[in-house]
Specification:
Chain A: Keywords: ATP-binding, Nucleotide-binding, Transport. The complex is a heterodimer of chains A (273) and B (328). By secondary structure, chain A is of the alpha/beta class. Chain A has a domain at 9-97 and 188-268: 3-Layer(aba) Sandwich (Rossmann fold). In chain A, 36% of the residues lie in helices and 25% in strands. In chain A, the strands form three sheets. In chain A, strands 8-9-10-5-11-12 form a six-stranded mixed sheet, with helices on both faces. In chain A, a hairpin with a 2-residue loop joins β6 (75-80) and β7 (83-84). In chain A, α3 (113-119) runs parallel beside α6. Chain A is globular, with a radius of gyration of 19 Å. With 328 residues, chain B is mainly alpha-helical. The radius of gyration of chain B is 21 Å and the shape is globular. The termini of chain B are far apart. The chains are: A alpha/beta (273), B mainly alpha (328). The A-B interface holds A 68, 70, 89-92, 94-95, 99-100, 102, 106-111, 115, 118-120, 122-123, 125, 127, 129, 132-133, 135, 139, 143, 182, 186 and B 191-192, 195-201, 203-204, 206-208, 210-219, 225, 322.
Chain lengths: 273, 328
C-alpha cells in the first residue's frame, strides 16, 4: 500500500484515519537466550483498527505485552502520543490510557459484573483516600457520575441482564464481553484486545466482531488486536502486521497482506530445502 | 435452676467479650491474607509493637534510651512530658503507617511472585525483628496502659440485672467498650471496602493481581494501604489487651489464639473473623466452667485448637470462607 501521509489516510469504507498514536521502533525482546521478538517496527494510527496476526508462537502476545508494559523489551523504543515512553510498570501504562483484555480472561471472578466494569474507571476517579474513606460529598457525586457512564457501556454491549451476577458464574463468551466492557470503561486512547475471539463459536465471533466495529465507530477508539484466525481479522481491520517466529514478515492492508508471498508461506507452510 | 441458667448466661457473655479480643487480632490477619495471600505471622507482634509505642509516646519515654545510655554513658529516660491519650493514639497510627511503608519497601517489594511459604517465613522474621525492636526501643518491663477507657465491673449492669432477674451480672466495662469499638471498626471497614474506589481496588487486588494491574491499580500502593489498616487494627487490639492486662511481651502470643479463630471463620472473611472469635471466646469459657472441673481444668489452653481441628475435618474452608473448588 502507499505509505500513509503523516496526517493519516482514508480507508476503503471512507473512514478517515488520524496521525500516528503509537509507534514501536526496532523492538527486540529476549527471554534468557531465546528471542521472542526480533527487531520489529510498526505504528498504530488514531481511529484505526490494527491487527497483529501470525501462527501460534509467532510472538504476537509478547508484542501486546510490550505495548501494555507487562514485558520490557531489551532493545527498541516505544513512542506514545508523540513522546518516547520510559520503562513503565503495567499500572502506569494503564493510567496513560492504554486498556487491554487478556487471552485467558483476567476478570475479578468474585465481584459482580457492575463492580468489575467500575474498576475500569478507577484511574479516572480523582477524589483522594481521605475523602473516599469519609465519603465526603465529592466522592459520592463522583461515584454517581462514573456509575452513569458504566451503565451506558453496559447498554452498549448488551449485558444489562447480568449486571449483578458474579463474574465467576458467567459462561465464557459473556466473560469476554465483560472484559471488553471493563477495558472500555477506562475510556482508553488505545484499546488492546488479546485474541478477543479465541474459543468462541461462530455466532459469538460474529457478535464480538460487531461490537469491535461498533466501539471503533461509536467511541472513535483506536484498537489493536491479536488474532490467529485470518478470516476474522481481514474483515475487521484497516491494516495488518504479520509476525512469524518473532519477525515481521508483512505489514499493510488486508488485501496487500493476503497476496504477500511470505505470509502465504508462513500460514500454509513451505518446503525448506 | 434459674440461678444456674443465669450463671451460664453470664459466662457466655464474658466469653463473647473475650472473643472480641481474639476477633480483633484475627481481623488484621484476614485483611492482609485477602489482599496478598500472605499469612502474616507478625500480626500479634504488630499489636504488641503498637501498644508499646503508644505507652512510650504517652509517657514521653525516650526511644532506645537503654542503648543510648549504654553507648554514651548518659542516663536519659524521659522527655519529661505526658501526651494526651488522643494525641498519642494518633501519633501511634502514624508510626504504624510508616511501618507499613517500610515493610513494603524492604520486604514485600523484593518478594513479589514468590511462593506463599517464603512470604510466610518473611513474616516470621518480621515478627522476631519487631519484637526485638520493641524491646530495644521501649524496654522489656511490663507497662501500664491507660488511655482513659473505663475499667472494672459495671455496677449499673450489676444493679439493673439484679433488680430484673434477681441475679447480678458481672460484666467488665472495658469489655463493653471493646465490643463497641470492634463493631464500629468492622462496620467502617466493610463500608470502606464496598463503597469506595480504594475499597474496590482492594477487592480487585485480592481477586486477581494481573487484572488489577491492567486497570491501573498499583499493587504497591494497595499493599501499603492494607498493611497500614492492619497496623491500625493491631493498634486497636493492642489498646484493648494492654488496658486489660498491661503491655507485656506475651501479648504477641495472642496471635496463636487467632489461628483457631481463623480456621473457624475462614481465612478470607471479615465477618468470619468476628464470628469465629466470638465462638472460640464463648466456647472456651463455657467449656472451662462446666466441663473443666470434671477433667482437671486448664482447658482454655487447648480447647480452641481442638475445636479448630474438628472444624478442619468437616468444613476446611471455615464457616464463611470461600469454597475450595479445584477445576480439573
Amino acid at each position: 500500500m502507499n505509505a500513509p501521509s503523516p496526517d493519516g489516510y482514508t480507508t476503503a469504507d471512507g473512514r478517515s484515519i488520524g496521525p500516528v498514536l503509537m509507534e514501536m521502533k526496532n523492538i527486540t525482546l529476549r527471554f534468557g537466550g531465546v528471542k521472542a521478538i526480533t527487531d520489529i517496527s510498526f505504528d498504530i494510527r488514531e481511529g484505526e483498527i490494527r491487527a497483529i496476526i501470525g501462527p501460534n508462537g509467532a510472538g504476537k502476545s509478547s508484542m501486546l505485552n510490550v505495548i501494555s508494559g507487562f514485558y520490557v523489551p531489551q532493545e527498541g523504543e516505544v513512542w506514545f502520543r508523540g513522546a518516547r515512553r520510559p520503562a513503565m510498570k503495567p499500572f502506569q501504562v494503564a493510567r496513560q490510557g492504554i486498556a487491554r483484555t487478556f487471552q485467558n480472561i483476567a476478570l475479578f471472578e468474585g465481584m459482580s459484573v457492575l463492580d468489575n466494569i467500575m474498576t475500569g474507571r478507577l484511574t479516572l476517579m480523582k477524589s483522594g483516600l481521605m475523602a473516599q474513606a469519609l465519603w465526603w460529598g465529592r466522592a459520592e457525586a463522583e461515584e454517581t457520575a462514573h456509575r452513569a457512564e458504566v451503565e451506558r457501556i453496559i447498554d452498549f454491549l448488551e449485558i444489562q441482564h447480568i449486571r449483578k451476577t458474579p463474574v465467576g458464574r458467567l459462561p465464557y463468551g459473556l466473560k469476554k464481553r465483560v472484559e471488553l466492557a471493563r477495558a472500555l470503561a477506562a475510556e482508553p486512547k488505545l484499546l488492546l484486545l488479546d485474541e478477543p475471539m479465541a474459543g468462541m463459536n461462530v455466532e459469538e465471533k460474529e457478535d464480538m466482531s460487531r461490537f469491535i466495529l461498533d466501539v471503533n465507530d461509536e467511541f472513535g477508539t483506536t484498537i489493536a488486536l491479536i488474532e490467529h484466525d485470518m478470516g476474522v481479522v481481514m474483515d475487521l481491520s484497516d491494516r495488518v502486521v504479520v509476525m512469524d517466529y518473532g519477525k515481521k514478515i508483512g505489514d499493510g492492508t488486508p488485501d496487500e497482506v493476503r497476496s504477500n508471498q511470505a505470509v502465504i508461506d508462513a500460514y500454509l507452510g513451505v518446503a525448506h530445502d | 435452676m434459674p440461678e444456674q441458667f443465669y450463671f451460664a448466661l453470664e459466662v457466655s457473655l464474658n466469653g463473647l467479650m473475650a472473643g472480641i479480643m481474639y476477633a480483633l487480632v484475627a481481623l488484621g490477619f484476614v485483611l492482609i491474607f485477602k489482599a496478598s495471600g500472605i499469612f502474616n505471622y507478625a500480626q500479634g507482634v504488630l499489636a504488641l509493637f503498637a501498644a508499646l509505642t503508644l505507652v512510650g509516646l504517652q509517657n514521653g519515654q525516650i526511644p532506645f534510651a537503654h542503648l543510648i545510655n549504654a553507648v554514651f554513658g548518659t542516663s536519659l529516660h524521659h522527655f519529661g512530658w505526658t501526651l494526651p491519650a488522643v494525641v498519642a493514639i494518633a501519633l501511634t497510627a502514624v508510626v504504624m503507617t510508616g511501618l507499613a511503608i517500610l515493610i513494603e519497601r524492604y520486604i514485600l517489594k523484593h518478594l513479589v511472585n514468590q511462593e506463599p511459604i517464603i512470604l510466610f517465613m518473611a513474616t516470621i522474621g518480621l515478627a522476631y525483628f519487631l519484637e526485638g525492636l520493641g524491646d530495644v526501643m521501649w524496654g522489656a518491663e511490663i507497662k501500664n496502659l491507660d488511655v482513659g477507657l473505663p475499667q472494672g465491673i459495671s455496677e449499673t449492669i450489676d444493679e439493673v440485672t439484679f433488680n430484673w432477674f434477681g441475679y447480678g451480672f458481672f460484666i467488665d466495662r472495658l469489655d463493653i467498650v471493646a465490643t463497641l469499638v470492634a463493631a464500629a471498626l468492622v462496620i467502617s471497614l466493610m463500608l470502606f471496602s464496598q463503597f469506595t474506589k480504594y475499597g474496590r481496588a482492594l477487592r480487585a487486588v485480592a481477586d486477581d493481581h494481573q487484572a488489577a494491574l491492567s486497570v491501573g491499580i498499583s499493587l504497591r500502593f494497595i499493599w501499603v494501604m492494607v498493611w497500614s489498616i492492619a497496623g491500625i487494627v493491631a493498634l486497636v487490639a493492642g489498646i484493648m489487651w494492654g488496658s486489660k492486662s498491661g503491655v507485656q511481651f506475651s501479648l504477641s502470643l495472642i496471635a496463636l489464639k487467632a489461628l483457631p479463630v481463623l480456621m473457624l471463620g475462614g481465612f478470607t472473611s471479615i465477618p468470619g473473623a468476628i464470628v469465629g472469635g466470638l465462638i472460640i471466646g464463648m466456647g472456651e469459657k463455657l467449656f472451662e466452667f462446666f466441663i473443666g472441673p470434671m477433667i482437671g481444668g486448664a482447658t482454655e489452653n487447648w480447647f480452641a485448637y481442638v475445636l479448630a481441628l474438628i472444624f478442619l475435618v468437616f468444613r476446611p474452608q471455615g464457616l464463611f470462607g470461600e469454597r475450595i473448588i479445584e477445576r480439573v
